[in-house]
Design goal:
This protein is α/β, with parallel strands linked by helices and about 350 residues long. It has helices at about 20-30, 50-65, 75-85, 95-100, 110-120, 125-135, 160-165, 190-200, 215, 235-240, 255-260, 290-300, 310-315, 320-335, and strands at about 1-5, 35-40, 70-75, 90-95, 120-125, 145, 175-180, 205, 220-225, 240-245, 265-270, 285. Strands 2-1-3-4-5-6 form a six-stranded parallel β-sheet, sandwiched between helices. It has a six-stranded parallel β-sheet with strand order 9-8-7-10-11-12, with helices on both faces. The radius of gyration is 20 Å and the shape is globular.
């Protein structure tokens, strides 16, 4: 198939961590023999005007490449742009914020409904997200398939913890807890830091940045390392004992899946996608607003096996190769059906 990939998130020189999951799926689809062209944004900077450049690039690529199918990541604006710029069948993936914005951002419900009416197929990265989308837009029921973006089991695999800690120059005592993601209210980082303080042992490392950084600075045992290149994340996962993502809501939880692939236990929110793949023995699910439960979750997770074979086995069911194969079938159905809307 000739596939035009449209995404508002894609790794770039200044933002190498942006939409890595999109690039991984692109690579796997190409490895399966498909021809791909991309129209993407590979930077966070530029404000909303950058979406105009994405639209121009998509229009240009659609004219020259003549795709058999447009494969867009995020409902609006990427999916809408794909729908407007090409008459080819459209497959669009919902990731989370694009669904939460429906009803919260003026006019977005109408634009999203228009996009999804035009789409042949809709992919959601979790059943939780599919239910939320179908609740907000009941007319899309029956068009949604649940497929997450998968994990690269070669890049993320169990490795020696002592070697990783030596390489990263980490010499702390006690368990090492790791949190990968933005320092935002939704990620629940303040409550996590307070639970760690009450635990009273080990270290807590945050990889990521955001508006709550100032409130975390100076907390005993907490290190704020900012954003790190995505290729360095496996080393930090190898070094840690537990990956923590007790978000207030998590549509899927990519960092959790990557940690499980590395054989590390996880502490994950009960709200959203994580209960769909965090298996018993792989980690602890927690009510994200229950302070006592979060402390207990840290205590329980740190005594789970390391490396954690249950986590690795669960992650293997979500390999990027398997997910690319599933997406391939969705794209083929869209091509066979032809343009709708």
């Amino acid at each position: 198939m000739r596939i035009l990939l449209v995404s508002q998130m894609y790794p770039g020189p200044n933002d190498p961590d942006l939409g890595v999951f999109v690039a991984q799926l692109e690579h796997e689809l190409a490895a399966r023999g498909h021809e791909l062209e991309r129209a993407v944004l590979d930077r966070r900077s530029g404000g909303k005007r950058r979406f105009l450049s994405l639209a121009r690039e998509t229009w240009k690529k659609a004219r020259s490449f003549q795709p058999e199918v447009v494969y867009a990541h995020f409902l609006v604006p990427s999916g809408l742009i794909g729908a407007l710029c090409s008459k080819a069948p459209l497959v669009v993936t919902a990731h989370g914020q694009d669904v939460r914005n429906i009803g919260a951002v003026p006019g977005l419900r109408t634009l999203t409904a228009r996009t999804l009416k035009r789409a042949n197929e809709i992919i959601a990265v979790s059943s939780f997200l599919a239910r939320e989308l179908e609740t907000k837009l009941p007319q899309v029921r029956g068009k949604t398939t649940v497929i997450d973006c998968g994990v690269d089991l070669e890049q993320f695999q169990p490795s020696d913890q002592a070697e990783a800690r030596s390489e990263l120059d980490w010499a702390g005592e006690g368990p090492l807890f790791l949190c990968v993601g933005s320092l935002t209210e939704r990620k629940n980082v303040i409550r996590l830091a307070r639970a760690f303080e009450r635990l009273g042992k080990g270290s807590l490392v945050f990889l990521g940045d955001g508006p709550l950084r100032g409130e975390l600075e100076g907390v005993a045992g907490v290190s704020l390392l900012g954003c790190v290149p995505h290729q360095r994340v496996p080393r930090w996962l190898a070094a840690c004992d537990v990956l923590c993502q007790p978000s207030l809501i998590e549509p899927f939880g990519q960092a959790l899946l990557e940690a499980m692939a590395c054989g590390r236990a996880v502490v994950a929110t009960r709200i959203g996608g994580p209960p769909e793949f965090v298996s018993p023995g792989a980690g602890v699910l927690v009510d994200p607003v229950d302070d006592e439960a979060l402390v207990r979750a840290l205590e329980s997770a740190v005594i789970l096996p390391c490396p954690n074979e249950a986590g690795r086995a669960a992650a293997a069911e979500h390999s990027v190769q398997l997910q690319a194969e599933r997406i391939e079938r969705v794209l083929e159905r869209a091509v066979a059906r032809g343009t709708v809307g």
